[in-house]
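EI: anyone free to look at a 339-residue chain?
SC: sure, send it
EI:
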Amino acid sequence: MSSSIDTRPVILTGDRTTGPLHLGHYAGSLKSRVALQRSHRQFLLLADTQALTDNAHDPEKVRRNVLEVAFDYLAVGIDPLETTICLQSALPALAELTLLYLNFVTVSRLERNPTIKTEIQLRGFERDVPAGFLCYPVAQAADITAFRATVVPVGEDQAPLIEQTNEIVRRLNRQVGRDILVEAEAMIPAVGRLPGVDGKAKMSKSQGNAISLSASPDEITDAVRRMYTDPTHLRASDPGKIEGNVVFTYLDAFCDDGQLLEDLKERYRRGGLGDITVKRHLEDILQALLAPIRERRARYAAEPGYVLDILREGTLKARERTEATLAELRAALGLFTLT
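SC: here you go
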């Protein structure tokens, strides 16, 4: 008789619900989530509470994008029978764990976190940084430990958040005298962060330099035509640079024909290959990739009630798991209980 105990490694991942997802999300995380969901026990968090850390002025934006992100998850192939999709704000244990962990972290340590320092600069907060934003590494630590995740897929720039989580784990374990919480390992994707189509470091819908997963054929065509290439490559006969060329960065991420890609690169470097020809190759790849995703997404968007049922069921499963972790930690810390 087979055992009902799931011994697969546990993955926690997710996205802030600030807008529909785009190709950067697909290359950086969504594709690997689909591939890993059968070999790992995967929890996928719709991080609406975390989204409020810099969107508290517009909570409606956060609320309406919960379903938008869920549509994207399902459209790319996330299987709710294999992956538990849940809503962060509906898991009260996460908030209590965050409060507990804040007592074991200093403000100076939070301010030294490289990820936080960079994000504060990008947003221009200076000293007006919201307390929730400064403390979100602690909230993320609560998320990871509550699910007892051992693997967390993150971009290289987010790795310091996992290290801070493990610092909290080690400090709490020392406090209670046993390994009650587990450390997590950062899983860095092979494909780095995709730049925007304009060549800027970060792809963002708000900056108009992203290709959404629901992009129409015309939107894909327009985005590829606008892509930043080598500004010194004025004629097809001119030698061109691959490095910093957004078209080739996207081809590296999405072209499955390695030999074709190497041939294109060699011809471009040598001279004799125009930007228009390279962009047509990329457009064909992106049109083929996004067409089925766009069609599936439209079907899910037409049935929001069905998707809500998936979120309710997943959140109930997640609530049971996270509350069990909280109860064990409360008991280990010797907190007073009325039950």
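EI: The two ends are 37 Å apart (CA to CA).
SC: 👍
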